[in-house]
Predict the structure.
Amino acid sequence: MASLTYQLLSLTVVLSAVRLVSGYSFHNCIEDANSYRKSFKCARRKESNLPAIIKDLPQSAVNLTITSNPMWHIPRMSFANLTNLQHLCIDHNHLRIIDQFAFHNLHQLKSLNLSFNNISELSTSVFNDLPSLTFLSLTNNTLKQFPESIFSTLLNLTTLIMRENFLTNFTGIAKSVSHLTKLAVLDLCFNNLTSLSHSNVSLPKSLTTLYICRNNLLTLGCKHSFLSFIQRLDLSYNPGLPTMAFQGVDLRRINYLRLRSTNVKIVEFLNISNVNAGHVDFSDTGLKNDSLLMKLCMLLQRKVKWIKRLGLGDNGIESITNYTLYHCPKITGVLDLSRNNLKSTNCLDFLKNQTQIKNITLEHNHHTTLKTCKTKEMIYLKSIEELSYRYNRILSVDAYAFYHTPNIKTLKLNINTIAFLHRQALKGLTKLEMLRLDNNLLTDLFNDTFENNANLQILNLRNNRISVIFNGTFLSLGNLTTLDLGGNKITHFEPSGLDGLTSLSKFYLDGNNLKKIDTSLYHVFQDTLTVLDLQSNLITISNEESSSPFMNLSKLSDLKLDGQRPHGIAVLPRHFFRGLHSLKFLYLTNNNINYLAPDAFDDLTGLNFLSLDYCCVGVTKLQPGVFKNLRNLTILTVENMGIQNFSKDVFGNLTRLYKLQLNRNVMQSIEVEALKSLRELHYLDIRNTPLSCTCENNLLQNWTVNDPHVHVVYLYNMPCPHDGKQKFYNFATNVCYIDLGEYLFLSTAVVIFLFTVTPLLYVKLYWKMKYGYYVFRSWFGEHWRRIREQEENCKYDAFISYNSSDEQWVIEQLLPNLEGNGSSFKLCLHHRDFEPGRNIVDNIVSAVYSSRKTICVVSRNFLRSEWCSLEIQLASYRLFDEHRDVLLLVFLEPISERQVSSYHRMRKVMLKKTYLQWPGSDCTDPTQAQEMFWSKLRRAMRTGSRLETEHFETHTMDENNYLQP
């Protein structure tokens, strides 16, 4: 009784722990590691029920993103407990229905994003509980219309985005937002609007930005002042919008107007409109030929004296003469000629009159060569500071190609096919600060390529075909701070290849063919280099290397060594990182390290971030103390590293560790003391680790479920390795709390008590106990006498247990031979002798106990019958427990031992008693065999009820495992 009470108490404790789970984990969401209980993302879950997704989020949540789920419905009061929510994003789901009061109690919500769903309609009051909302996006849904009063309570709304829907009624939209006195941005692009307002409705005066691009506008249809407060207006990609649609429309406040791909004749438009011509983007407005450009320039010159930006992109311009832009007003900012068909710009001669231009964009054209410009007599483009030739087909850049633009600070020649860069191509660019030559076909750089670019600060040569850096290549670049040589084929640097880079801070060498880290290359970076990227090279390290290649890089803070091809760096020897006292970030991912020295990280005392994901071969046994000096480490990622042990000896010194990713390792257990030693730990990812659901981890289970400070990612989805349906967080641990000492004490106390009391009882109660023994013997004899008398008074000689499919044999064979033919046995058959209306179980029990014998007619159907199973169980109980010989087995057909072995009681009877086999038709003399069968059965029926062995005939299992007589 005490034991039962103790077990029930233990079970109650366990169930209470499960019911009162206060653990810091969430079923379907992950907390942002940098935000304590404030930012959550619930992505790519299989759950379609929104309340189930967010049911366990804390009330402190401020930012919530629910994305890429099969969710289709937001029920009412879904966020009632998240009263502090300020930013809610429910995008890329299957959302169709939003109930009224779905956002009830979100009084602090400032932004709501419902983009990329299947919302086709919204109720009038769906946003009623969002008084603080300032941003609302309904992008990419299936809305055709919505109630005019839907935004009536959103008085603080400043941005409303409804692009990519099927809206057709602008009047209804204007009415719904007309009272929003703080609305500044309205985006209606990618809808089916054909015109603006026709009725007496006005937009709010606060609205300054209106996007109606990619609709089907055929007219504006609005009154004179309808757009009078708009400052940015995008009407692009409305191919049916005519010029006369702007007749009488007030556009004086417009500071950016986009008319790309409309039917507006731009010169005619400027003549009828009061818009400031300098604020119109002329890209893709049909200005293809030289005459139209000249007309535009002359018209602009009459209207404005200067223009900050002239956008002429996507007009199909094939050539520009020296007089094309001659009559344009002064361009003081940007000239955009991108996405045209220009093949040559003749040293920018067409800009002779534009002496104040700052930025020229010639991207996405058809330039093949930038020719020499030094032969021109005068340099007139001194004002140009940025020049872009990206996305062209430039094959070569000749000498002095930029001679007329000596003051350029930014030059973009990237994403071309430049294979030849003349040694003097950049000659004269003394003020150049940023040069982009990435994504070309350059193979060589020379010692005089950059000799005139002493002010260069950023040089990008990524994704070319450079294989060697020759001596003196960068000798003149003393001010260079960023050098990107990634994605080339560099195998080595010549001894003085990097000389001159005395200010270099960021050096990118990833994706090259470097085979070693040469210490002599980095002596110039001793006081400057902060970022060194060496990932995806061919670097290997031997255990014999005694000196560190980073000794001089005392200021280095970011080092990338991950993914060395083809087999990784193999070894991290002792003191490999010596000298890197300022290092903050170290990446060693994908390196197949087969030896990690216990003191490899000893010099990295300032390290904050360490990535060892997929870095090792097979199962990794980390040496004790390997992280002993990393006391400033805050983020450690060791995903799929093959870690077998997680102990305090290895991880115990990481006292400032904030985020730990241990997923996809092979630990079967984790020391709780090791986790508790990580005092600053907040984020723990142990997904896809085979943590055993045994007593070995009962403390870990309790810690992960109840620790209020550490967020364990998707704890409630972690399965037990041996049973995927059982979860780690709630596997039964009650057996782990059994106090063996208590049980030993109780058992010992009982034994001592018995040894103490028994002699006393023997002395005091000897004669009473002897008298009781003789009384019991007398009662026992009387009990057996009554049993024999009951047997003599049995109602039936035998109860026949059979399956209904064998009823024909029972009626035609068994009954005539036992009740007829002079046998005079009285049999009990369920279809004939069971009491009508009585419970079938009671009938079976009564039949078994009121019959001297029970005959089981065994066949394959009999073995499959539930009622037959009950009948043989009752009969065998009398056989084994009451010691009464009442059971006879008759086999109608051969049955294999394998089939019988599933029936424990029957198998036990067969081992204890003989049984009879009905002779089949395949016998030599069936008639004689059947007569012998009935003779033996009648003989068995006449035996007494005491358990005794009757040797009718021995039955054994033959070599084919069938029962044979």
User: Anything to note?
Assistant: The first strand starts at residue 30 and ends at 31.
